[in-house]
Amino acid sequence: MLIRILLCCFLLPHALHAAVIRMGPSALLQTVADKAQPGDTILVAAGLYPQHDIIIRKPLTIIGENYPVFDGGKQYQVFIVTAENVRIQGITVQHTGRSSLVDMAGIRLQNVSGAVIQNCRFLETTYAVYIQHSRHCTVTGNQIKASATDELQSGNGIHAWKSDSLLIKGNTIAGHRDGIYFEFVTGSSILHNVSYNNIRYGLHFMFSHHDTYSHNTFRNNGAGVAVMYTKDVTMTANTFYHNWGDASYGILLKDISDSRITGNRFSKNTIGIFMEGSSRIHISRNEFSSNGWAMRVQASCEANVIEQNNFVDNSFDVATNGTMMLNTFRGNYWDKYEGYDLNRDGTGDVPYHPVSVYSILSERIPATMILYRSFLTNIMDQAEKVMPSIIPDQLRDDAPKTKKWKL
Amino acid sequence: MLTVSKYVFLDLLKNRSILVYSIVLAVLSFTLLGLSGGSAKGLLSLLNITLLFVPVITTLFATIYFFNSLEFIELLLSQPVKRTGILLSEYAGMALSLAAAFILGVGLPLLIMVPVAASFMLVLTGVLLTFIFTSVALLIFVLSKDKTRGIGAAIIVSLFFTLLFDGLMMAFIFTFSDYPIDRALVGIMSFNPVDLARVLMLLQLDVAVLMGYSGALFKEFLGSATGSIYSVACMICWAVAPLLLAIRVFRKKDL
Amino acid sequence: MIRIEKLTKSFGKFKALDNISLHLEKGQAVSLLGPNGSGKTTLIKSILGLVVPGKGSITINGRLVSKDESYRAGIGYMPQIGRYPDNMTIEQVIRMVRDIRKDPADCDEELYFRFGLNKVRHKKMRTLSGGTRQKVSASLAFLFSPDIYILDEPTAGLDPVANEILKDKIAAECARGKLVLITSHVLSDLDGLTSHIIYLQDGRLMFHESVEQLQARTGERKLNKIIASILEKQNLITC
Which parts of the sequence belong to the Carbohydrate-binding/sugar hydrolysis domain (chain A) (predicted)? Predict the structure, then answer.
């Protein structure tokens, strides 16, 4: 065997046909990997491997059979990848250590490109996949689960920092601090992931330009999803569900510009979209249903266009903190709209004011919420319709739809 | 005393007013739920109707019915029966038939068109309100000297709970908004069964928005199961207390 | 059978009954007379336990009225105005009262049949005339063959035929040794039935005497004449 490998090394220095190496729990993966040739495939048999700080220094493919378990003994990191084109597939990584000095990762990608981490399981890791200074890496189909309880003691499911052209696809992430964390990551895609029950954000996204995330589901995360300080983000067809709390959002948009939010569903969140300091965002064809506030658009936002969305069963449709409104609402469907459509073109003939009196009132004096939906509230809303005095007049939809958009 | 209850219940089931009440509720329910396509919007309109109609109609109808039954109650009391028994039977017959009318008028359409948890809660609150205001009507009946005064009192009491109370509470909130009044508000609210019913529904329909406020009121009371349990408990007290008081007064009342 | 001792009842400042003592025995047919507001109804209601006495006591067959309600098993009461739940049928009303009385096997249904109520038993109370409702009240009062009958204006609104049937029944029950207490405005109705007369005025007992005694005292035979002559005398005194 050894002779054959040696022969391969000498005769085929570029590993024209790579070798397949099998190993079991009695062997050390570090040793096997060090001995393997670039391009070799290591097949890891099922079993428990209490091995840690395994450094992959050459382009290898590591495939687990029936999810062999690599256990960091709650003290160490498990895999550190420093070579190009490494592929890790079908293994279980569990119990990494926890440290305030080092971010302990299940699999760490360090200055690499072309790495693929596929169909792995991560259990009780501080950071499951940790990507830094890397390009063209793919993380797909992984099950990532932990049971973090507080922000300081825990790490993120998929953590990417200063990287480019990543593809994060089809992963399920739960119980971390942030499900997916992106900082200074550009030109990347986050697709078809499910991120839930994380204690802070389902997706935490900063300084990451030209990225796309779509078809993801974010639910029951402590504070929802935060997208901040970024240009040119495309957010489509995601589901933001059941993010409850006084600082919890479907999405928090802070200093975002030139972006697109299309075809998403915001359901049962305390605030569907919270926008602050954001501009030139096109928000269209989204469905906002059963949220506390569908949107909160702060006065620091400008030139955003909100059109062709459905607003249904929200306690309040829109809230704001000023009287100025430099954004455009048009052609949305509001279930609270009570205007008429005489020429039957599907567009209401009188404008709709999405900010209700009671939402303003309750913001000034929260205690008034105890009287919400009483007969008195209805009277106040009707009175305001006849004689507007409190609600910002500029915030209105001049062409509200009378029928729901089919989204 | 199940006997008398049974006959009162059967009598009321054939009562035209109860029939009309049930039909009006059913028509409203089907229309509102139909218009809104079975969404929460229809549920909310129904909530408003429940909070307004049930207290007013229950109180008025029950008071009038009790006064009209005065001679019959006298006749029953000339039989070897206890006063408490007769009064309780009248109450049970009345409350059950009004509750049946509400369940048929509102519960059935809801069950067909919006079978969600909030709908069940709405039916529950409606039934609780029916029991409460029948109880209040009974108290008005035993305390009033004659029918005219009784009906007057019924109108005032039901309007007080449906409209006036909230106005006063709003005034209180505005006046003392700079002070920590959260707990006081929960206390004050407990004195109005209509508000308790409304908060029960609020906890079903608007938890998302309630979670968005800070303060003890929202964190401790409205934000957890405590709020619902407290409200239901208070409402049960509201049904039982006037009933017990009515029995006490009725035991010594000259008919 | 009925012993009333120093019964006083006030409604606010108004004294409805003022220190009334009465002993009524079985076999008597007692007419309770007096002008409107004299306390007749209050007295009846006190006996029935519908009005709680202020002072004094009422004992029926040796049992205190205020103690418990069981004494009422021995009383048949026919109210002045019979009002019943609108949508109950005659049959249901009778059924219900029988159920309350634990449904005794042998009931006196004579009046029920003689009034012809069995033919209209499926009619709702709402649709009945005042007279028919009176018939129902009367049937109920006599249904359980009680020892004491309390009949408040029993003949008002009854047609002459029914009137006679009722009077026959009252006479028969008296003859069986029952105590009958009747109030009525129409004094001629009570002729021949009454053995004793109680006269109340302003809550006070004016007299309680047997008809024979009164006839002897006034020399009149008819009840209304007797009463008229007594009242005249009293007016003379008070004037």
Answer: 36-206, 208-350
Asked whether the predicted pLDDT for residue C41 surpasses 90, the reply is no
Residue pairs spanning B and C at CB distance below 8 A: 84
B199 neighbors A370 (Cβ within 8 angstroms):
yes
Q: What is the pLDDT of residue B216?
A: 65
Structural domains of chain C sorted by starting position, each given as residue range(s) with its CATH number in brackets: 2-238 (3.40.50.300)
Contact (CB<8Å) A270/B217: no
Closest partner residue to B209 (CB to CB) among A270, A367, A370 is A270
Q: Which residue has the tokens 């099998």?
A: A22
Rg value, chain B, Cα: 19
Q: Minimal Cα distance from C137: which residue of B?
A: B75
Q: In the structure, what pLDDT confidence band is assigned to residue A13 with cuts at 50, 70 and 90?
A: very low
Does the structure's ipTM exceed the value 0.95?
no
Nearest Cα neighbor of C52 from B139, B246, B245, B250 is B250
Q: What is the biggest distance separating any 2 CA atoms in chain A, rounded to whole angstroms?
A: 92
Q: Which of C81, C86, C103 to mutate to test the interface with B (most CBs of B within 10 A)?
A: C86
User: Over the stretch A110-155, which tens digit does the pLDDT of each residue have?
Assistant: 999 999 999 999 999 999 999 999 999 999 999 999 998 888 888 9
Q: How far is C137 from chain B, CA to nearest CA, in Å?
A: 9
How far does the CA of residue A397 sit from the closest CA of chain B (Å)? 20
Q: Rounded to the nearest 5°, which phi and psi values hold at C48? A: -80, -5
Contact A98, A122 (CB under 8 A): no
Mean pLDDT within C58-63: 87
Q: What is the pLDDT of residues A186-205, one digit of tens each?
A: 999 999 999 999 999 999 99
Give the domain range for residue A370: 357-391
Q: What is the pTM of this model?
A: 0.86
For position A38, which CATH number holds?
A: 2.160.20.10
Chain C residues near residue B4 by CB distance under 8 angstroms: 96, 100
